## 1
Amino acid sequence: MLELQGIPVSPGVAIASALVLDADGYRIPRCIVPAADVDDEFARLREAVDVVSEQLEQSRLETTATAGRQTGDIFAAQLQMLHDPRLHSELEKRIGEERQSAAFAVSGVLHNYASALQKLENPFLADRAQDVLDIERQLLTQLGAVTRQPLQDLNEPVIVLSRMLTPSETAGLNREFVKGFCTEIGGPGGHTAIVAKGLEIPAVVGIGEFLPVIAGADCVIVDGDRGRLIIDPTEEVLEHYRQRAEYRRSLAQRLAQQSQLPATTTDGTRISLNANIEFPHETAACLQRGADGIGLYRTEFLYLSSDEEPSEEDHYQAYAEVIEQMNGRPVVIRTLDLGADKMGHGKRSQEENNPFLGLRSIRLSLRNLDLFRPQLRAVLRAAALGDVRVMFPLITTIAELRQARMLLNVVAEDLKEAGIPFRSDLPVGMMVEVPAAVIMLDHFACEVDFFSIGTNDLAQYTLAVDRSNESVADLYQSSDPAVLRLIQASIDVADQTQTPISVCGEMSSNPARALLLLGMGVRNLSVPPSALPRVKKAIRNVSIEQCEAIAERVRKLESARDVDLYLLDRLADLAPELVMQ
Ligand code: PEP
Ligand code: MG
């Protein structure tokens, strides 16, 4: 048995035999053609470009239908790359002047593009390199230089293991037989990861080199929850995962039957249970899983999943899609939270020594009004379509909040003068995710309509621990008593000032921690769509009194470990079904 650790990008457990793709990659031999054949090579290239163009358009249409427009746009961007005039002039030079075969020229030019992107050491651009390699592979396939793996001709369940999987290959995976996949390279922000999550295929990426050691593995396990790939498991491990997979399946089925029941505690307290989304297509899963609304729409993903900066219209269309789907339910649109680990487009990003303490989020938006204004215009216009609220991230000072609000007013004036329909009286809220904001929260309460606690950043800034650094991951705990005290302080101010407050950080997606939050006084939670069923189940199993007793006990504990052990113990008593082995 071999157990390998990678980055979990799409949750779930899958067990099947391995289908190993291109362990050695492929190499196109250097081939110089006679002068008389140059025209033929041009014709072959043109034909290949036309076919790949059609295939990409087809992938765009199909992916848009199954995973939403945002994901489908990945292929629109690839189409644009394929028709890039610079690419074609380089290819023409190699074929026409250097007499390279079409395949050799394609391989040379596109490989150079991809490695130039990879060398920039920018994770966002490194992920785009995969798109370039995707196009290369498709062109070479058309030119007959590489043969495609038999991914379409499957007739039994498999787990795909590959050096990498391009976005188009991922989108084209046969869901009936491909139960999961693992790759040697790739990051959590890549398009492959985005597509996998959209299609809900368990996946682990960035494992590092492993293909040479697994030739012929009969049985592999992908643990998309914990980022593990297990090759040739022992009977004991296999049995453990079989049980986990079976348990997940039957629990999901049982919870699905309760999806449209309200999130009400046993004493009749109605909890507002909302969903966090990154892409408009996720609203379908939110509705199916019974979300009361969208509590956090991370709009920066509109930027991160596209090679072009989105226009006001792109923003508007995305928001309109979400609002219309949610059909009168509340939708909280968070303005751009770019910077730090969420890199924007080249011209917006800059080298910083401490990016999490640097020009990120609302700070970046306020310094780039050409970026921020179109978004605010789109939010105000879309607000006319439903129950929309706007929320500013990473607010640290009152001045920032006032500046952001003022800009919103200015933009509203512009729309009014231009006679463009919009709604100006939409509720305006702020995220509470910096200790300075918690300390000054009574002042902020006079200037906002609602608060939402972002526990992911609040833990990072309270504990001085970078949330994306695996070396200090053990210190990064939202259940640390120091973080809990700041959360309690925020809830108390919200109570005193009668300002609605919710929790939208990952903390609330953990059912045990969600019960603690209820005990601390929270009545509004927002969680990723996949967490909705389990959190609702926990809520429906408890009374507020039981939750308050939990919070009372937790106040006396001194470490995150003690808190989590106690919470798990309580969850095992109150909602035993949710405690998996
Ligand atoms: C948070 O910080 O808790 C939050 C919800 O925002 P994000 O994870 O997008 O920074
Ligand atoms: Mg945050």
Note: Residues 330 and 387 are 5 Å apart (CA to CA).
## 2
Amino acid sequence: MTLERQLAEIVGNAQVLAGGDLPAYEVDWRKRYRGRARCVVRPGSTAEVAAVVLACLEAGVALVPQGGNTSLVGASVPDSSGTQVLLSLARLNQVRGVDIANLTMTVEAGCVLQAIQEAAAAQGLLFPLSLAAEGSCTIGGNLATNAGGTQVLRFGNARELCLGLEVVTASGEIWHGLSGLRKDNTGYDLRDLFVGSEGTLGIITAATLKLYPQPAAVTTAMAALQSLDDAVALLSLAQARLGSGLTGFEVMNDFSLGLVRKHYPQLAQPLAGAPWTALLEQSDSEGEATATRRFESLLEAALERGLITDAAVASNLEQAHTMWHLRESIPLAQSEEGLNIKHDISVPVSAIPSFVASTDAALQRMVPGLRMVDFGHLGDGNLHYNVQAPEGVPAADFLREHEKAINALVYEAVMAHGGSISAEHGIGLLKRDALVTHKSPVALGLMRAIKQALDPRGLFNPGRLL
Ligand code: FAD
Ligand code: ZN
């Protein structure tokens, strides 16, 4: 019996799709990678996932797990060989339960992030993971990439929000690790091994997540800054004044916001023209009035100290949405502008100003006139440090000529500042070679040993990450 026939017996005929021309599954979000699957399989339960893995194991056929296919590093699509089975988790989309007193929620891997946020809100609770792809990415993908987003400063990455996992292993067994415990020191942490493994160690089928009380008020503000040094000082001041009430701190350089002005002129910009703009978010358990007062007093103190030159506090939800919308429109405006070279890097917050100053200068020496699209999660030391061709230079020529050298320069600078070449998007295919250059041989050896122990036949997502 063919593998396709076997798979159809497990999941039903309608849930095995012929590969070869299924762009929603075979082309990545940035349209940089176009693969071809042997077939696409859409199981509807954990037991079906386990049976699919077993069938593929016996046939010696590799599997590529996929959630919402929003990976930015080419980790979620098959290669072009036409031999890999694409395993879509999209149909595993049930909320299995909410434990209000324990502040936990158990969901299946294919649940869309926004649906999880809404299910928590329906119970008066908060699931704080938040990113621009939340309308289509899934919790399985968020955990497999240890996603970050805009609330990491207060709540941590996806890893910190996960208490337990259910996983189908490379031998087709099910690990029932759906614990809601906050304390459990019974040996190696298997959960944390699967989180961030980019689908190379096991298939996540469900997760138990941490919830938080909903804040009574969320307030948002923007501040105009002359430099990144001032932005770091403003962050310290905001942390001192707001404590754990500070839930977001983003920065954008003027060129980033200029791209938004150019491509989305209908979006009003409260503080146009400063070299840097900070976006701050505060969550408060008391209420709107207290939160706004605290925000205004913070911004007045920052003005007095000369850290900011202007500020705007959103006076209603719509204005707050507009501020976040501006920030989230930068990647889209950047795509409108044309191809560019993306870096998702982190360095210690204290090193951000010197990293940007010295790396900008080195890049200008390499290609005079190139333009920097700098924005990101300053509160986490994570910048999207992207490079656009000089005015008038065709983007494709620029990439062909300079992409390799620019990546090497930026990653060397990141390492020299004690940073990471991938802060939140993962390694996938895009950064696999860079990982080998910049990770220590000891760390790579341990990672390969773990892969060998958990997936000795190389069944899951071969060629990605390692
Ligand atoms: P996919 O893209 O389908 O898969 C991602 C990886 O996880 C692949 O390696 C895949 O094989 C694996 N995988 C998926 N599901 C499973 C599973 N159930 N079990 C095992 N492995 C699995 N990331 C951030 O961290 N922060 C951001 O702010 C952010 N913003 C983004 C904004 C946009 C507009 C887009 C398009 C992406 C953004 N991302 C961001 C990238 C981020 O990695 C994804 O949005 C998300 O975490 C991936 O979820 P997904 O369900 O789409 O996973
Ligand atoms: Zn980001």
Note: The mean pLDDT is 96.
## 3
Amino acid sequence: METTHIEHIGIAVRNLEEAIKFYEETFGLKCYAVEEVKDQKVRTAFFKVGQTKIELLESTEPDGPISKFIEKRGEGVHHLAFAVKNIERALSETEAKGIQLIDKRPRKGAEGLDIAFLHPKSTLGVMIELCEKKEQE
Ligand code: ZN
């Protein structure tokens, strides 16, 4: 797998507006995009910190993955996203190593990235998202 950088860190929050305000007022960051990803039942807010982004995630449904995460563990770091080259190949290599995939094929995430999650049971307790920015077709 060719991993180039940490694309973003995903953080689960209960209230997106309050969390945006907190990150702006505390860390001097500026939220540059709020986007709903229906597929994942979340609303996301993005901040740039150098090359890496912070992605705040608020659930839009009580049965969404972020709701369930917060119920179990409370608010906090939810996943780490690695930017990779050739996400399809990265996934097949990962699967061949016996690592459990949540997404066998890439799907569309926020910001138009192709994304796929690996199961934290297989990755030492950290949910890992692989993502790739494909050129506009
Ligand atoms: Zn993410």
Note: The longest helix spans residues 16-27.
